[in-house]
Design goal:
The chain is an alpha/beta fold. The protein contains eight helices and twelve strands. It has two domains: about 5-125, 3-Layer(aba) Sandwich (Rossmann fold); about 125-225, Winged helix-like DNA-binding domain superfamily/Winged helix DNA-binding domain (Arc Repressor Mutant, subunit A). The chain binds calcium ion.
């Protein structure tokens, strides 16, 4: 069965381009023109991925994302955000909202389909499912239960945050470059340009509270989970 994608965009010309290109890739595509309609559409039938514009009438994209991350049933739903202005990227970072990736406008439709494909492909093969839980320095990830705890308290993570943390913990003590992480966590080829790795690490640190320093930045290279 083909994966279903919800495009949330009020500008019909942009929505049409996205629908055309995604349908050509074989996806089943729905469109919601407003934030409130997006939420009701998702509640009615869960899509496999959401492409979310931030500038929407009534409930804007940030509120939609906040709502999706607040509810347990949609916390892991992959969301790719479209942003029109660079300030909006900073707002996302600042608000720690948990998009799986963001794409600045204007975008090439090829770029969007490439990222959608990559994210859905990663989710298709949940290679973490059979793996044992890992605990390092108070941080525990359990792939089977899809839970993360820090000093015993549960920390809610999005699917991509979980993948990233799990992979860094598996490879603890070893530096992982941004390119490597984009490839292994997002499934992107090397030429995709995005700050999403940094955003995700920042968000993970924020969620890890007192254990934030387990996630080290190796300047000019990438990130490393502190080994034990
Ligand atoms: Ca818009």
């Amino acid at each position: 069965m083909s994966a279903s994608i919800l495009v949330v965009e009020d500008e019909s010309s942009i929505a049409e381009v996205l629908v055309y290109n995604l349908e050509r890739e074989g996806y089943e595509v729905r469109v919601a023109e407003r934030g409130d309609l997006a939420l009701s559409s998702i509640r009615e039938r869960m899509p496999d991925l959401v492409i979310l514009d931030l500038m929407l009438p009534r409930i804007d994209g940030l509120d939609v994302l906040r709502e999706l991350r607040r509810e347990r049933s949609t916390r892991a739903l992959p969301v790719v955000v479209l942003t029109a202005k660079s300030e909006e990227i900073d707002r996302i970072v600042g608000l720690e909202l948990g998009a799986d990736d963001y794409i600045p406008k204007p975008f090439s439709p090829r770029e969007v389909t490439l990222r959608v494909k990559a994210i859905l492909r990663r989710l298709d093969y949940p290679d973490q499912r059979d793996e044992a839980a890992i605990t390092v320095g108070g941080v525990c990830v359990d792939p089977e239960a899809f839970t993360c705890t820090v000093d015993g308290g549960e920390v809610p993570l999005t699917a991509t945050e979980f993948r990233l943390l799990h992979l860094l913990m598996q490879r603890r003590g070893r530096v992982q470059t941004r390119e490597r992480l984009l490839n292994d966590v997002w499934g992107y080829p090397e030429d995709v340009d995005t700050r999403t790795v940094d955003t995700h690490v920042r968000r993970l640190r924020c969620k890890m509270g007192p254990r934030a320093d387990s996630l080290e930045t190796v300047f000019g290279v990438g990130y490393r989970f502190r080994g034990q």
